[in-house]
Write a structure and sequence with these properties.
The complex is a heterodimer of chains A (483) and B (174). Chain A has 483 residues and is mostly helical. Chain A has helices spanning 20-32, 37-63, 78-102, 112-132, 160-192, 197-206, 214-247, 259-285, 294-325, 328-339, 343-355, 363-366, 369-396, 411-434, 440-446. Classes of the chains: A mainly alpha (483), B alpha+beta (174).
């Protein structure tokens, strides 16, 4: 009995016909050769951005938060905008790896590894970002409930900011574990073809003695499914809790019940845009057009249309509710966003997040990598501005006009924005060099290689001498001529 | 103590599935199968029982839930009740987010730790029993003798009929 569902309508997930060994060779190639010039240029650019960010962070720590443009009225600015932005980016990675796994969307296999890595790096940026905004970051551990000599004075568990600490740290930990568990079989593959001694040692230790045993595979799949089941509500909870940092306050423009779903949809929306940006670069730089196919890109574009639609609905609901509530402060905040001094930010947000994704209704546009790349950048910009609009325009004119003021970020804050992008891309580029960027074990599973309805591939292209030597406990030899 | 093992390599998923099914029908004891990816249908072919790891996950989650809820109630209502915004000390709805996060954290870490222990996955220089190319592109089926009886010829015929590309006898500590 074959459990493979046959469909003549569906295009194969991996377009070029590939044998299992070819998948291994292709996915491992980038981490086994020296980086090319394009990689070095990108890496040095990212590293420079990171260094500039470090300069700005150092300046912040040495001098204090006064080097930022924030003031008594606008106490949250670019710092929290960055935090929400990066946390949101992370959500698409979990959506691809966990939610699409639960829905048995097999197209995720080519992109899930990179998307999960993106999640971890984005949450790293968010975590470091929120710690720097504390002013005295060396006291960040005060957010944790630990026994102390002040009585013990515990944290206030009714505060959404404490919920945030637990949500973000749990999210980071579970994402990391999920990623590592998913990496295990591929780490073993890399170990078994490693040539150098250090490489053998490192991948040998990391792969935990994985030997492809089906008993282990069976348990592994159970655990992977459980982790996906845990990560799915987790990812929804994280941005829900982030939104509660705002929604549980009384500030007009924040105090709304729509925030949790609105934030989660926005996170997925911006995260998919970032996945597209990264994948479009990767498939061109590494020549993986047949592994990350147009169909993958199109599927992600479709998710962007859906979540973009939810965003449009959320924006209009916000406006309608503010008007319908009859609350003068709410209604003023909405009008101030649309026509006040930050109107440019509001209309940038609407243009980038509501209008731009509409191009994706056209198949010709959503299957064009260049159009997708440009749109993904536009959406990233739009979603950054969405957080800026939510945070700054709500704060800068609240209840009492004598409090009203403007907030302009200083060069230090712009430097920190650049620095987080630098950190993110530095980590991502290092990742493309040291770990298999595509889940080989999962791609092999969807190849349809060696299944009944693909008889032309029965023998495969291998010309390896056979039988290969085996010995229990010995490293697998990788005979010449496998490629 | 070492025992004799019969190893057969296959190039295709279908072939190893068929070999595993017929080996089980013929009454051979299947030691294990070694594959580059999770071959679906192999659980049934090998006659594996569903894993009990979900219960570990459930247990760890339950512990996380109770610990987090209990700790928040104890710190906020018993050890040092603070009046924050006039809310009651034992404001359970406000404790739900942290309870949920901690439950997920313990359930996730617990089930992965259980997997590593059960499948004996730990950092080591070389795996205990590593067959050639099974992490790349080959599928290997390992058959063991039953009750001191080791029918090598029968195993070989069976595997070759299913499409084995190579077979070998080996000895391994189980």
């Amino acid at each position: 009995m074959s459990r493979v569902r046959l469909s003549v309508l569906r295009e194969p997930l991996v377009t070029a016909e590939r044998s299992l060994a070819q998948v291994t060779d292709e996915v491992c190639a980038p981490i086994e050769r020296r980086p090319n010039t394009r990689w070095w240029i990108a890496f040095l650019a990212a590293l420079s951005a990171l260094c500039f960010g470090i300069v700005c962070i150092t300046r912040t720590f040495r001098t204090g938060l006064g080097v930022w443009g924030e003031n008594n009225t606008v106490g949250w600015g670019v710092d929290i905008t960055n935090f929400v932005f990066w946390i949101g980016i992370g959500h698409a990675g979990t959506l691809i790896s966990a939610i699409l796994f639960l829905f048995r969307q097999q197209w995720r296999t080519s992109v899930n590894r990179a998307a999960e890595a993106m999640t971890i790096f984005a949450v790293t940026c968010a975590g470091i970002g929120v710690i720097t905004h504390m002013g005295r970051p060396w006291l960040a551990f005060w957010t944790l409930p630990y026994p102390n000599t002040r009585g013990s004075l515990w944290v206030n568990f009714r505060s959404p900011l404490v919920w945030d600490v637990f949500a973000v740290s749990t999210y980071f930990t579970i994402s990391l574990v999920f990623w590592y568990v998913g990496l295990l079989p591929d780490l073993a593959t890399v170990r078994d073809r490693a040539k150098g001694r250090i490489r053998k040692l490192v991948f040998g230790l990391l792969s935990l003695g994985w030997n492809g045993s089906h008993r282990t595979w069976s348990r592994y799949e159970t655990v992977y499914l459980l982790l996906a089941g845990l990560a799915t509500p987790l990812v929804v909870s994280v941005h829900t809790i982030v939104s509660m940092d705002f929604a549980t306050s009384l500030v007009p423009g924040w105090h709304t019940t729509i925030f949790p779903p609105y934030f989660v949809a926005g996170a997925v929306f911006s995260g998919f845009a970032m996945v597209l940006t990264l994948m479009l670069i990767v498939r061109v730089v590494l020549g993986w057009e047949h592994l990350i196919t147009i169909r993958h890109l199109e599927n992600m574009a479709k998710i962007i249309i859906v979540t973009g639609g939810i965003m449009a609905l959320a924006y209009s609901t916000e406006v309608f509710t503010a008007w319908y509530s009859g609350n003068v402060y709410e209604w003023f905040t909405v009008r101030n966003r649309m026509s006040g001094p930050y109107a440019w930010a509001y209309w940038t947000m609407i243009g980038c997040n509501v209008l731009a994704p509409q191009f994706l209704w056209f198949k010709k546009l959503r299957t064009s990598p260049i159009v997708l790349f440009l749109l993904s950048l536009v959406i990233n910009v739009g979603m950054w501005f969405e957080r800026f609009v939510i945070i700054v325009t709500s704060l800068h004119r609240d209840f009492v006009p004598s409090n009203w003021t403007m907030y302009w970020p200083t060069w230090v804050e712009y430097g920190i924005i650049i620095g987080w992008f630098g950190l993110f891309f530095t980590l991502f580029l290092l990742f493309t060099r040291v770990l298999p960027m595509i889940s080989m074990a999962e791609v092999k599973g969807v190849l349809d290689y060696g299944r009944e309805h693909r008889p032309q591939l029965h023998r495969g292209p291998s010309s390896a001498p056979w039988p290969a030597p085996i010995a229990p406990g010995l490293r697998a030899s990788h005979p010449e001529g496998t490629v | 103590m070492t025992s004799r093992l019969f190893v057969a390599w296959f190039e295709r998923e279908d072939a190893i599935l068929e070999a595993a099914r017929s080996a089980r029908q013929a009454g051979y004891s299947i030691g294990d199968a070694y594959t580059p990816y999770a071959v679906h249908g192999m659980d049934e072919a090998m006659g594996l029982q569903p894993s009990r790891l979900p219960w570990i996950c459930f247990g760890c989650g339950l512990v996380g839930l109770l610990v987090a809820l209990g700790f928040q109630l104890w710190t906020s209502a018993i050890d040092w009740p603070l009046n924050a915004g006039g809310k009651p000390p034992a404001s359970v709805p406000a404790f739900i987010p942290v309870t949920f996060e901690f439950m997920v954290l313990l359930a996730g870490l617990g089930v992965v730790a259980a997997l590593f222990l059960r499948a004996r996955l730990y950092p080591c220089l070389s795996p205990r029993f590593l067959l050639s190319r099974v992490t790349d592109d080959r599928f290997a089926l390992v058959l063991a003798g039953t009750d001191g009886h080791f029918d090598e010829a029968g195993m070989r015929t069976l595997c070759e009929r299913a499409g084995a590309v190579a077979t070998e006898l080996t000895e391994a500590a189980p």
